[in-house]
Amino acid sequence: MAISVFFSLIIYRGAAFELQRIETIQTQRRPMIGGPPVLDPEIIKETKRRIMFSLFATNVIILGLSAGSGYFLAGKTLEPIRKNMEEQKKFIGSASHELRTPLTSLKTEIEVGLRDKKFTAIAARKILVSNFEEVNKMQKLSDYLLRLNRLESGKNVFGMSKVDLKKVAIKAIGKRRVISDLEKSVVLGNEDALSELVGILIDNAFKYSPNGNSITVRVKNKQIEVSDKGIGIPKSDLPYIFDRFYRSDKSRTKDGYGLGLSIAKQIADLHGAKIIVESKLCMGSTFKVIFG
């Protein structure tokens, strides 16, 4: 607005100066018979007023447009920051909730043991075993969080080379019983990271399939597919399954922290691949990792 007003003043002063110059010249040269007519001073004043009004109206329009566009662009600029803040709050809340459960269990068992006047070595051992399990859970959660944070940084996470997806799938399957249909398919990536990705998808398939039946792993045309005939994913949950700590109502009865698919998504993104999910309730789910 300062620039606009500055140039408006220059334009007005320039136009006023020219009108004044014309008026002065014509006043000095009184018209003779057949000479040019002298401009009416009222016309010159009216012209100046019109120029001033036009410039004022132009500045008002510019003010409105700049205010509106500024508000819009500021909103666009701040939107990623707002989303990051919301994700951070959600992350802190979810992490605190996941850590509170084993900590509460540890505290309760220790308090019960301390209050027991007939506390024996056998009872102490049971508490230690239980506490050890809870500590393992917290350590597993911290490892997940550190791994996810490292992947989300996206910088020098792992080296890339030509990798055969068939070999990746075999490594991820290990000794687990699945139906496999594997073809040689070479992509640029990291074998260990891709094996971790496929392993997460296979673990999820076993977790949400009755008795781990009918789990299929396919590799073909730069694509890895893991499918099952388990409980499926509700359509309303599909947009959020890759969010950190997100777990649908049906999956809350299963062990886990809701971080596996987030890690899988980050690994896929770092490889320039995309994960497509197809699922129907009570009929199963299919995860496809497609490389460019």
Can you characterise this structure?
The chain is of the alpha+beta class and 292 residues long. The protein has two domains: 1-153, Signal transduction histidine kinase, dimerisation/phosphotransfer (DHp) domain (Helix Hairpins, Orthogonal Bundle); 161-291, Histidine kinase-like ATPase, C-terminal domain (Heat Shock Protein 90), CATH 3.30.565.10. Helices cover 59% and strands 13% of the residues. The protein contains six helices and seven strands. It has helices spanning 2-28, 41-115, 121-153, 165-173, 191-207, 260-270, and strands at residues 161-164, 179-182, 186-189, 216-219, 223-227, 273-280, 284-291. Strands 2-4-5-7-6 form a five-stranded mixed sheet, with helices on one face. Strands 1-3 form a two-stranded antiparallel ribbon. Strand 6 (273-280) and strand 7 (284-291) form a beta hairpin. Helix 2 runs antiparallel to helix 3 (121-153), helix 4 crosses helix 5 and helix 5 runs antiparallel to helix 6. The longest helix has 75 residues, at 41-115. The protein is elongated. The mean pLDDT is 83.
Index terms:
alpha+beta, Helix Hairpins, 5-stranded mixed sheet, 2 domains, single chain, 292 residues, Heat Shock Protein 90
